[in-house]
Amino acid sequence: MALYSAAAAVLAGLERGEGGLKSLVYNSGFPHVRQLYALVSETLRYASVLEKLLDRAALLQAEKKLTPQLAKVLVYDLLFGKGLKCGGRWKALARRHRARLEAELARMKVRRKVSRSEDLLAPEKAVSAAASQVPRYIRVNTLKTCVDDVIEFFKRQGYAYLGKAASVEELKALSGKKFLLDPHLPELLVFPSQTDLHDNLLYTSGHIILQDKASCLPAFLLGPVAGSHVIDACAAPGNKTSHLAAILKNKGQIFAFDVDAKRMATMNTLLTRAGVTGCQLVQQDFLTVDPRDPKYSRVTHILLDPSCSGSGMVTRGPGEEAAPSAERLQALAGFQRRILSHALSFPALRRLVYSTCSLHQEENEDVVQAVLQEWGSAFRLVTAFPSWSCRGLAAFSGAESCLRASPAETLTHGFFMAVLERCREGAADPSSLPAAAKENPQPGKGAEPGAALKKTKKKK
């Protein structure tokens, strides 16, 4: 029973964009990670087949207590896996519907003119070329170490350091035991796609964070100065929170919100391992937080990465994400508009980054446009990261100020980001880059080669 619940939780985390497959499995707390990883991977591999079976057998309508993620895991193991060798009451529940599910599976094979279940995967099983090129990114945790020391550590482990990449194109050619410094983010190292560092000493000790490049951008673009009060509104599993703490140099205050107790426990473990201090974990729905509470009177920066369809996530295991229905997109967008508008109501707020790991305009440009219209001239959209090539869709005038990321164009997971700043009468136009970015000029903007390394060098 614990195995199926843990697998369902990992699937839900993937859909919410809380991390990659391996990271979520390793951070799940489940004692048998190989068993869990195998079950989730295979469930993902059969995802499109499972969704059709669940729909045609009307299993979720018949069993109201089942979540879609748990249903997928149970039906996978019932029909394609080991036949529900464990599971307690969930096993009994799934077996009640076995005959109907098997009948729907047989009909599917007849329609597709195949005899084996494996053959149902033929059109879906190939991972796109673009997705397979997404490298392994690691963020150096500057609360514990510096870029130079991490580079030297990997060189001693037999890796060849090739210096700072001049462009994203250079990252595509990485292979074997070679790595680069990212061309955009000064504390991000880039390894070949299949590099597994989960057992590496630097990862287990919290000196490095396994975090996709696109996931590093929100905190980087928010760029609060040391001493700031910051809210991470939808914080779990905590990678962005630890990034904010590193940017703040553990000076200031972070309020990290999440409503789920298990995710909060996981986040607490991650932040402790990363050496984060000055962070208050709050188990509360951010929408219920009173912006006028004196506790938050000094909050000037908010990072808002709400629940979304997760359509931009590229799992490092097999499988693909199913397209969300129009009804689900509408519901998600409604929630995202409410929570973004709520975040803007904090009285001292000066800068906010809204981000999703979704590719859908409904969750991205449309949400930003609707909330900006609601707030009138109080806030404006900032042209974030001008040197970033992948921009927002032309959904409204000024949408090009937003950022997008994708496997094909930026060699990252799919992501969307918008930077909003409060308007002030008589103030100059807001900077398009936060303080952190100003200190680390971009390639082609007068940056000295190796300048990022020099700036992150610390005395031991």
From TrEMBL:
What keywords does the record list, in alphabetical order? Acetylation, Coiled coil, Methyltransferase, Nucleus, Phosphoprotein, RNA-binding, rRNA processing, S-adenosyl-L-methionine, Transferase
Which residues are recorded as binding S-adenosyl-L-methionine?
234-240, 258, 285, 305
Spans annotated as Disordered:
429-460
- Which top-rank group of organisms is this from? Eukaryota
Q: Name one GO molecular function term.
A: rRNA (cytosine-C5-)-methyltransferase activity
Q: Which residues form a coiled coil?
A: 91-118
Tell me which residues this entry annotates as catalytic: 357
Localization per record: Nucleus, Nucleolus
Among SUPFAM superfamilies, the record links this protein to: S-adenosyl-L-methionine-dependent methyltransferases (SSF53335)
- What InterPro entries does the annotation carry? MeTrfase_RsmB-F_NOP2_cat, MeTrfase_RsmB-F_NOP2_dom, NSUN5_7_fdxn-like, NSUN5_RCM1_N, RCMT, SAM-dependent_MTases_sf
Matching PROSITE patterns? SAM_MT_RSMB_NOP
Q: Mitochondrion as a keyword?
A: no
Please classify the protein's predominant subcellular localization into one broad category: nucleus
The record places domain SAM-dependent MTase RsmB/NOP-type at: 126-423
Q: Which CDD domains match?
A: AdoMet_MTases
Q: Which biological process terms from the Gene Ontology are attached to this UniProt entry?
A: rRNA base methylation
Q: Does the keyword rRNA processing apply?
A: yes
**A GO cellular component annotation in the UniProt record:** nucleolus
Which PANTHER family does this chain map to?
Answer: 28S RRNA (CYTOSINE-C(5))-METHYLTRANSFERASE, NOP2 YEAST -RELATED NOL1/NOP2/FMU SUN DOMAIN-CONTAINING
Q: Which family does it belong to?
A: Belongs to the class I-like SAM-binding methyltransferase superfamily. RsmB/NOP family.
* The protein's name in its UniProt record: 28S rRNA (cytosine-C(5))-methyltransferase
Which species? Loxia curvirostra
Q: Which gene encodes it?
A: Nsun5
